[in-house]
Amino acid sequence: MSIRPSLVTGATGKLGRLIVERLVALGQPVRVFTRRPETARSLFGETVQIATGDFGDRASLEAAVGGVGRLLLLSPISTRLVTDQIAAVDAAVAANTKRIVKISGSDWTIEPAGNSISGAAHAAVEQHLNSLPVETVSLRPNAWMQVSLANTITRAITSSQVIAPNLSAGIGYIDARDIADVAVHQLLADRIRGRTLNITGPDIVSFKQIAALLTAALDRPVAALEKPPQAASGDGDFEHRAVAQFVRLIAADRAAVTTDVVPTLLGRSPRTVADFILEQVAAATAIPEYQP
After folding, report:
1. Is the pLDDT of residue 259 over 60?
2. Where is the NmrA-like domain positioned along the sequence (predicted)?
3. How far, in Å, CA of 142 to CA of 132, rounded?
4. Which residues of 201-236 are buried (b: 16+ CB within 10 A; e: fewer)?
């Protein structure tokens, strides 16, 4: 009997492509749902099925979920997040999908409620998932190394500065590759490990420590400068307002947490900030002898 494919939404983004690559490497049949079929084909070649469509197009959603065994739910921060994701979930349930794994917001954006418009959106989808008669798990990654930390590293390379509202605030950064590994594990495992999983790296690292690590990696001084966060404008778009809220919550030390989810599920430690900085600096400065 053939294995039903897993459907991955958001497959052409930073995290989505990592998830697809891992599933393909494991010999799993994969279908991707995308508005950009040319991009998906250039990324994955003939190794995946491509379902072209949009969350707002019910017919394309129904076609995408037909015959699917599992759904990996991922979409960008936007005003459409709740509507889009619930539409995908409902279509998958109607098609008898066995399991749904959602990439959710960071735990500190969701609980307690009222601090993040992004967290509120993810919470609404999680609540809907919890009401369904299928297996569901929501993964709540802490701040991604490939996003916020990568931006900090890039600025430090060009300006020799690390700027943050609170230099002592710590973050349990998580590498997107570890998020992808956990997502694939929960997608394929015999059983899920709970309704929500808070995924973090192994250490809490402050902005002062990041500046010190960059000083060592670059072999030149990187200053740590404190600058108050900008207020989130009510006139800004959803993503920019959400990011401004993330900055304020991180400055309040809300992201200073670690969990044992990665080692418990994967049997290994998550990737470290120190190693990620070395990897990024090596790539940016073309150091051929460094092997991540």
Report:
1. yes
2. 7-230
3. 26
4. bbbbbbbbbbbebbbebbeeebebeeeebeebeeee
